[in-house]
Amino acid sequence: MVMRGSSGKAHNTHAYGSRIGYGIFHLLIRATGPIPAYLLLAFILPYYLLIRTSARRSVYYYLRHRFPDQGRIRRLLTAAYYLYQFGKVLIDQAAMGILDRDCFHVEFPGRENLYNLAQKRSGMVLLTTHAGNWQTAMATMDHIGTRVNLLFNIANDEGRHFFDLAGERDRFHFIPPSGFLGGMVEATNALKAGEVVAIMGDRAWGAKTMEMEFFGEKAAFPITPYYLVAATGADLVVTLTVRTGRLSFNIGASHISSDRDWTQVPREEAVKTLMQRYVACLEEYLEKNPYMWFNFFDFWGANKKEIA
């Protein structure tokens, strides 16, 4: 298993694992499918939970907020289950790129609405999250009818995403957040051209943030998605993906900007209001799917103590 997490103000990403580890799982999936990979995952999970203590600490940041009343032993058991769910998502993510798409069951009840929004050619910000297999949503963008731009920092992960495993990286245009003005100019131009820009709502990558109440404590969320909507008038759609079983997913899509012309609203008010709507969507999602959010760093940043 390879676990990904982040730490530090800029949320620099660290990987627990290696390309060799990825390669072993990929070979197993190619040869036998995902089930043996799930079994292998169960054998190596204790290493990350009991020996690789940095991995355990990284998941505790979220678990402490989501389950604040848990004692030490129960939290350790919860962390084991949580890590196993994350590992299965990673295996499914790899399998999406390796196996034939007919092997997957994807429910996407909002697909037609998303397509219709894209055909308006007014631009769309697709707000994604490190929830479930978020790349499942990206894999369904084949027939959206316009170019999809991904404002993601994946330069150090080549070969690890379904884009690469399926040989489909060219289907998307990648805008690096480390580029000029954080990629804002390129993203703005894409939206004005009527294209889609997909961007993470729960990872700042060094961009400006605004604090919101999130599971009982202030947390910093990036303002970039909402600024783009306020500046261009693009639609804002939140996508949240749930793993519902082996190679089975459900994609939810919520159009949270439909009630106003956000270019006519004071910029700070627009950003704050739209961010509050996203955070409400995320909290509702996590109330129903508490083990499906995978942001492995101190997202709240207020408690700097080491967590045993």
Notable characteristics:
43% helix, single chain, two-stranded antiparallel ribbon, 19% strand, 10 helices, seven-stranded mixed sheet, alpha/beta, 2 domains, 308 residues
Compile the SSE list and pairings:
Layout: E1 3-7, E2 12-16, H1 19-32, H2 34-51, H3 53-66, H4 72-98, E3 105-107, H5 111-119, E4 124-128, H6 134-139, E5 148-151, H7 162-165, E6 173-174, H8 184-192, E7 196-200, E8 209-214, E9 217-222, H9 224-232, E10 235-245, E11 248-255, H10 267-288
Parallel strand pairs: 3-11, 4-7, 4-10, 5-6, 5-7
Antiparallel strand pairs: 1-2, 8-9, 10-11
Helix pairs in contact: 1-2, 1-4, 2-3, 2-4, 3-4, 8-9, 9-10
If you had to describe this structure to a student in words, what would you say it looks like?
The structure is a single chain. The chain has 308 residues and is of the alpha/beta class. The chain has 2 domains: 99 residues, no CATH class; 186 residues, no CATH class. 43% of the residues lie in helices and 19% in strands. A hairpin with a 2-residue loop joins strand 8 and strand 9. Helix 2 packs across helix 3. It is globular.
